[in-house]
From TrEMBL, chain A:
Protein name per the record: ABC transporter ATP-binding protein
Top-rank taxon: Bacteria
Keyword field contains Iron-sulfur: no
GO molecular function: ATP binding
Keywords annotated in UniProt: ATP-binding, Cell membrane, Membrane, Nucleotide-binding, Transport
NCBIfam families in UniProt: oligo_HPY
Origin species: Thermus composti
Intracellular or extracellular location(s): Cell membrane
Record CDD domains: ABC_NikE_OppD_transporters
Residue intervals of the ABC transporter domain: 7-263
UniProt-listed SMART domains: AAA
PANTHER family in the cross-refs: DIPEPTIDE TRANSPORT ATP-BINDING PROTEIN DPPD, OLIGOPEPTIDE TRANSPORT ATP-BINDING PROTEIN APPD
Membrane topology: Peripheral membrane protein
Family label: Belongs to the ABC transporter superfamily.
UniProtKB/TrEMBL annotation, chain B:
NCBIfam families according to UniProt: oligo_HPY, PRK11308.1
Name of the molecule in the record: ABC transporter ATP-binding protein
Organism placement in taxonomy: Bacteria, Thermotogati, Deinococcota, Deinococci, Thermales
Superkingdom as given in the UniProt entry: Bacteria
GO MF annotation, one: ATP binding
Organism: Thermus composti
C-alpha cells in the first residue's frame, strides 16, 4: 500500500441474506483514504454508504449480513498494514476505538442512558490505554473541554438525557477521539441536528482535525456538508461507486449523470437570484436493492440512457484523468456534448 | 391583490406541565407565544425555524387539530377559534394537512384506494362507490401515480410515492388551504425536488393556498412567496422570500442563513456560528428570546419584548436595534 494511504478498500462486497433474497448492499466498492484527509462518501438511502462504514469497523450484523469478498487494508499506529476482513474479533477490538473510531447520526441512541457521560468516556480510555479510573476521568474532562463543552468537570457527572442533541454529539466526538485514532468514521453526524448546531459541530470537527491530524471518512447525503468538509468525494449509488474525484472538480464538472442530477436537484440559497421556475428533479425512484435494474443501476432514471448499451452490463469504473473515476459507458460523449 | 384567506392574530399555545401527586399544573411550555400573520388566497407562506421554535404547533393550531390557548384564527373572514366541532366540519373540508413522515402517516392495513377515499366518505363526497373510485383514480393521476396503484398497500411504495399518496389524500376533498408540515424532509435528495415541483404544479393548477413549514431554508425560499422565521414560539422576521434571503434584518435570520452549508466548495464566506443551544421554552429568556445567543445584544434587550414592526414595505422584524443590518 502507498505510504500516504491510511485505508484502502478493495472490491468490497457485503451481502445480506434475507428471506426475500440476497441484498447486495455493497457490491465491489473500492476507494482509499490518505492520512489526515477528509473523504466524503455521498449517497441516498440504499446506496450502501453506511454498510461500507460498518464493514470497515466489522460491525455488520451477522446474520443476515456478511462480508463476502474484497479486502480492507488499514495501516495501524504501529505502521503495519492489516486486512481488517481477516482479523479475529479480539484483534479487531484493539483496532476499534484505538485506531479507528466512529460517530453516528443519533447521539441519543449511541450513548448509554444509565451511565454518566464521564463514566462512558472513561470506560473507553481505561479499556484501550490501560489507565486508572482517576487518570481516565482526568482525560475525559480534558476531552470535554477540547470539544467545547462549558464546565467540563461538572458535565462529567451528567447523564445523556440532561444534555441537548448538540451537546450529546460533542460527547460522542470526545469519546471517539479520546484514544487519538488515526481514522474517524462519521456516519451522518449532523443529520439529526438543527442547522445552527450543525454549523457548530462542523466547525468543531474541522478544528479538531487540524489539531489532532486524524483522517475523516465522512458519510452523508448532504451536498452542502460535502462541499464544506471534503478533500475528496466518492459518490455511491445502489451499492457501487459511480464517481470519485477531488471536491472542486466534482462540483464544477460532475461526470456521472447521477452526480450531475443530484447537484442540480437541490435548491440553492446562494443562487436564489438566478433561479429557474422549476427544480431539475431526477425522475423515478431509488431502486429496490432486491431487484436492481440490469446493467447500470441508474439507467431507468438517466436521461442519457441508450437501450442495449446501458442495460446490457455493469459499466466498469474508468479512469477519467486527474485521479478521477467514473462508472458510465457514455461519459466521454456526454462530456463532449457539454463542452 | 387577492383577499386574505387565513389570518392569525396573537396566537398562543401553552402546554401545561403537570407534576406532583395531584398532577397540578406546575408550569407551561410556551410553544407558541403571540404569533400573528396572514396568508392571501393563492399565496405560499413559508414558516422556518429550528426544533422547538413552535412552527409545527402553529400549523396544527390554525387547523384546530390542537386548541389554541389564546388569540384568534380567522378563515375566509370567519372566526373559527371557538367554533364547536359540528360547525367546524365544513371548514375542515376546506383545509387539509400533509405530514412529514410518509411512513407513519398512512395506515398500513388500508389499501391506497381506501386511504384516499376515506376523507370523501367522512365528508360525504361521492355518493356511490363507483363515483368515489373515479375520484380516487383522478387524484392518483394528479399526483403522478397510476390508478392501478389503488389496490396496493402503502408498504409497496417508496418514500416519495408515499408522500404523493399523502398529498392525494389531502387533495381528495378539494381544499383551498393546505398546511404542508415538513413535506420533503424525510425524502431522499433526488426525490425532494420531485415533490417540491409537484406541490408547485398543484398550487398553480388548483389555486391552492399553502402554509409551508420546514427547517430547510433553501426549500422554503424556493417555494414561498413570503417567509416567516420563528424562534422560541415567536416570529422574529417576516418578509417577501427573496427580500428575506438577500437582505435579512433580524440577527437570528442572518445567523440562520449563514449556517446553511452551500453546495459549492469554491464559495468561501464568513460564517456566524451561534453559541450555545436554543433555551428551554419552559423558561424562555426575558425580553427578546434570542438575546442570549445574539451577537448584537444590549442590556436593554432583556427589558422589553420587541414588537414585530414594519421596517421596509412588507418587511417586518422583532428587534429593538435599528442600527444594525
Amino acid at each position: 500500500m502507498d505510504e500516504k494511504r491510511l485505508l484502502e478498500v478493495k472490491d468490497l462486497k457485503v451481502h445480506f441474506f434475507t428471506d426475500d433474497g440476497v441484498v447486495k448492499a455493497v457490491d465491489g466498492v473500492s476507494f482509499h483514504v490518505n492520512r489526515g484527509e477528509t473523504l466524503a462518501v455521498v449517497g441516498e438511502s440504499g446506496s450502501g454508504k453506511s454498510v461500507t462504514s460498518l464493514a470497515i469497523m466489522r460491525l455488520i450484523p451477522s446474520p443476515p449480513g456478511r462480508i463476502v469478498g474484497g479486502e480492507i487494508l488499514f495501516r495501524g499506529k504501529d505502521g503495519k498494514v492489516r486486512d481488517l476482513t481477516k482479523l479475529s474479533e479480539q484483534e479487531m477490538r484493539r483496532i476499534r476505538g484505538n485506531d479507528i473510531a466512529m460517530i453516528f447520526q443519533e447521539p441519543m441512541t449511541s450513548l448509554n442512558p444509565v451511565y454518566t457521560v464521564g463514566d462512558q468516556i472513561a470506560e473507553a480510555i481505561m479499556l484501550h490505554q490501560g489507565k486508572s479510573r482517576k487518570e481516565a476521568m482526568e482525560l475525559a474532562a480534558h476531552m470535554l473541554e477540547l470539544v467545547g463543552i462549558p464546565e467540563p468537570r461538572k458535565r462529567l457527572s451528567n447523564y445523556p438525557h440532561q444534555m441537548s442533541g448538540g451537546m450529546r454529539q460533542r460527547v460522542m466526538i470526545a469519546m471517539a477521539l479520546s484514544c487519538n485514532p488515526s481514522l474517524l468514521i462519521a456516519d451522518e453526524p449532523t443529520t439529526a441536528l438543527d442547522v445552527t448546531i450543525q454549523a457548530q459541530i462542523l466547525e468543531l470537527m474541522k478544528k479538531l482535525q487540524e489539531e489532532l491530524g486524524m483522517a475523516i471518512l465522512f458519510i452523508t447525503h448532504n451536498l452542502g456538508v460535502v462541499a464544506e468538509m471534503a478533500d475528496r468525494v466518492v459518490v455511491m449509488y445502489a451499492g457501487r461507486v459511480v464517481e470519485q474525484a477531488d471536491v472542486v472538480p466534482l462540483f464544477q464538472e460532475p461526470l456521472h449523470p447521477y452526480t450531475r442530477g443530484l447537484l442540480r436537484s437541490v435548491p440553492r440559497l446562494d443562487l436564489a437570484a438566478e433561479r429557474k421556475e422549476r427544480l431539475e428533479a431526477i425522475p423515478g425512484n431509488v431502486p429496490n436493492p432486491l431487484y436492481l435494474p440490469p446493467g447500470c443501476a441508474f439507467h431507468p432514471r438517466c436521461k442519457h440512457f441508450v437501450a442495449g448499451l446501458c442495460d446490457a452490463e455493469v459499466p466498469p469504473l474508468e479512469d477519467a484523468g486527474d485521479g478521477r473515476q467514473v462508472r458510465c459507458v457514455r461519459w466521454r460523449e456526454i462530456r463532449e456534448v457539454r463542452a | 391583490m387577492n383577499g386574505v384567506l387565513l389570518e392569525v392574530k396573537d396566537l398562543k399555545k401553552h402546554f401545561p406541565i403537570r407534576g406532583g401527586v395531584l398532577s397540578r399544573v406546575v408550569g407551561s411550555v410556551k410553544a407558541v407565544d403571540g404569533v400573528s400573520f396572514s396568508i392571501r388566497k393563492g399565496e405560499v407562506l413559508g414558516l422556518v425555524g429550528e426544533s422547538g421554535s413552535g412552527k409545527t404547533t402553529v400549523g396544527r393550531t390554525v387547523l384546530r387539530l390542537i386548541e389554541p390557548t389564546g388569540g384568534r384564527i380567522l378563515f375566509d373572514g370567519q372566526d373559527i377559534t371557538e367554533l364547536p366541532r359540528e360547525k367546524l366540519r365544513p371548514f375542515r373540508r376546506r383545509m387539509q394537512i400533509i405530514f412529514q413522515d410518509p411512513f407513519s402517516s398512512l395506515n398500513p392495513r388500508m389499501t391506497v384506494g381506501d386511504i384516499i377515499a376515506e376523507p370523501l366518505l367522512i365528508h360525504g363526497i361521492g355518493k356511490t362507490p363507483k363515483e368515489r373510485t373515479e375520484r380516487v383514480a383522478e387524484l392518483l393521476k394528479l399526483v403522478g401515480l397510476s390508478p392501478d396503484h389503488m389496490r396496493r398497500y402503502p408498504h409497496e411504495f417508496s418514500g416519495g410515492q408515499r408522500q404523493r399518496i399523502g398529498i392525494a389524500r389531502a387533495l381528495a376533498v378539494a381544499p383551498e388551504f393546505i398546511v404542508a408540515d415538513e413535506p420533503v424532509s424525510a425524502l431522499d435528495v433526488s426525490i425532494q425536488a420531485q415533490v417540491v415541483n409537484l406541490l408547485q404544479d398543484l398550487k398553480e393548477e388548483l389555486g391552492l393556498t399553502l402554509l409551508f413549514i420546514a427547517h430547510d431554508l433553501a426549500v422554503v425560499e424556493y417555494i414561498s412567496d413570503r417567509v416567516a422565521v420563528m424562534y422560541l414560539g415567536k416570529v422574529m422576521e417576516l418578509a417577501p422570500a427573496r427580500e428575506l434571503y438577500r437582505n435579512p434584518k433580524h440577527p437570528y435570520t442572518e445567523a440562520l442563513l449563514s449556517a446553511v452549508p452551500i453546495p459549492d466548495p469554491t464559495v468561501k464566506r464568513e460564517r456566524i456560528v451561534l453559541q450555545g443551544d436554543i433555551p428551554s421554552p419552559i423558561n424562555p429568556p426575558s425580553g427578546c428570546v434570542f438575546r442570549t445567543r445574539c451577537r448584537y445584544a444590549l442590556p436593554e434587550c432583556a427589558q422589553v419584548v420587541p414588537e414585530l414592526k414594519e421596517v421596509a414595505p412588507g418587511h417586518y422584524k422583532a428587534c429593538i436595534r435599528d442600527d444594525i443590518l
